[in-house]
Amino acid sequence: MKKNIILIISIVLVDQIIKLLAIKYLAQLNSVTLINGVLSLTYLENKGAAFGLWNSRWLLVGVNIVIIFVVIKLLRNKTYEFTKTMKTAYSLILAGGITNLIDRLFRGFVVDYIDINELFYYPVFNLADICIIVGILVVIVTIVIKTLQKQEQNYEAIQNRKGK
Fold first, then answer.
1. What predicted TM-score, i.e. pTM, was given to this entire model?
2. Is 15 one of the annotated active-site residues of the chain?
């Protein structure tokens, strides 16, 4: 669990430092192209949820807090035996949620800065968003794999009983 706490703190610190730099420098420039046609740094104040949806700061703060507590509860739950992969995935989700919550509480908006709009039509996002998406994808893929493995074991058990 210590490694997960270090991971969470590291992500929160790195993302918040990048956001402070974006506020100080990028906000004045608005956008800087890093790789032509692929990647830009674009300053954006996102007052909504993911991809700018909704626009109620306190509703989003509340939802963000509930999600953080649910993830913490899952990580601390002794009923489930989480693999290192699942713990890391939940830690990524937690770190992303915490750093975006910090933005909403203290700035009133989430600072977004990664722009791949020229490559894909995709909203500007940040490191926290990447962590949340990767964490969710890992959880989903892990659940699907475990479900398929369990179904395969059940099928084999049924076949073995039929063979006896």
1. 0.78
2. no
Per-residue pLDDT of 10-57, as tens digits, reads 999 999 999 999 999 999 998 999 998 889 999 999 887 554 455 555
Strands (E), the chain: 31-35, 39-46, 110-115
In 3D space, the residue among 103, 132, 88, 139 whose CA is nearest the CA of residue 18 turns out to be: 103
Is residue 115 flagged as an active site residue? no
In the 8-state DSSP scheme, what is residue 108? Answer: S
Rounded to whole angstroms, the Cα distance separating 132 from 80 reads: 21
DSSP H or E segment with residue 119: none
Nearest to 90 by CA among 79, 111, 75: 75
- Which of the following is catalytic: 15, 103, 115, 129? 129
